[in-house]
Specification:
Blueprint (H helix, E strand, L loop, with lengths): L5 E7 L10 H6 L10 H6 L4 E2 H5 L28 E7 L3 E9 L7 E2 L9 E7 L1
Parallel strand pairs: 4-5
Antiparallel strand pairs: 1-3, 2-3, 4-6
Length: 128
Amino acid sequence: AGAADADFVFGDFNEPSHSDWNEAAVKAGYQPMVVDYPTVKAIEAKGFVDTFRTHFPDVAAKPGFTWTPTSEPTATDDHHDRIDFALARAASLKVLDAGIVGEKAPQADIVVTPWPSDHRATFAKVSF
């Protein structure tokens, strides 16, 4: 493995992250309780970083919901959350930018209209 090697994991995990279900998210009213979801945590234990949460560490200021653009965040028949991830691992990894791609601002940092999915996408710009 050379110095410029990097590994990436992308996807719809259908499970939120422990870093989004913390005390700050509860206080902001985004989540009903703290939950220590295991999947992202297990990948991070292998040396990966959650590029979005690395770039935006304050979940109250930037929740980054990817689920779902098909209803309003106030809808009582669904729960908006971040379940789509871009995780990266490299010896000298730097997250230069990250964000959400979707149907409208402020939910999306990059707007695409019409938006073709029931999930918003996530992106990251990294160097290593």
